[in-house]
Amino acid sequence: MDLNSAIRQFLEYCELEKGHSPLTIRNYSQYLERFHAWANLQNISKLEEITQDTIRQYRLYLNRIQDENGNNLKKITINYHLIALRSFLKFISKKDLAQTLQAEKIELADTDERQISFLSPEEVETLLNQPNQSSIIGLRDKAILETLYSTGLRVSELVNLKRDQINIEKGEFAVLGKGGKVRVVFLSDRAKICLKQFLARRSDTDDYVFIRFGRKKNPALQIGTEELKLTSRTIQRIIHHYAVKAGIIKPVTPHVLRHSFATDLLSNGADLRSVQTLLGHSSVTTTQIYTHVTDPQLKEIHKQFHGKTLKTPLEKN
Predict the structure, then answer these.
(1) Topology at the third CATH level for domain 121-301
(2) In sequence order, which ranges of the chain are alpha helices (DSSP H)?
């Protein structure tokens, strides 16, 4: 089978059988298109022509790519390309489309330990108190900030929230996360109050929780379509605006609030597995980026509880 047809079948498989999100499929398409273009230059058009040396040469190519500023691809970006290629080759093997190399032989590049940014409790409090709640836009923005910090939602999950999805009285709701996985998230008392106030002020009938408003007397713009729904980029701008207003120097994004949510839970005694579930991580390995919180706590636990049954101290020589 030719490479182009196989890539098309793989992307259809990701959509129909694996149920991957449109974003994941778009990324796979982008990364595999780069591999396809490079393979064409090497006169590689058949699946059987992909060998271990082919992969080695492609890795060298990725490692030497430079943008207009002379910057190489980041290691994590190279790994994204290799992950897409590895998934593609696994598909080839599973469907018996060709006898090609084993996908497991594709090793990822070592990357630097991921550093995360989060807000201190004082910074969170200052940020959450910035919106002026005298207007419906201020009520909306306050509800956005409180909901993000209370639930740890991804920004894509936030913008797709609908009114009938949220049980404000119970303070919980189910959300469809990455990979089509459903998880339950919980609202703090503050978030419940803010959402109630905001939704009570709404005079429109739009399904989405967070929508755009005009500045005139009739604030609703166009009811009943997705045109009213806030975009992820708009949410980012809203948070940046209030972060600047709060005097927070570091960049603040929806994901920084997600990190702050997890950090707050762990620093107050939550276990890593529970935080993994609340964040919707498929693996606890992903959640382990929060070791900046858990490591000091583990050290204190070790100091407090370990070795208490040893009665005789070690004699000094």
Answers:
(1) hpI Integrase; Chain A (1.10.443)
(2) 3-16, 22-41, 52-64, 75-94, 121-128, 136-151, 155-159, 189-201, 232-245, 254-267, 272-279, 284-287, 291-305
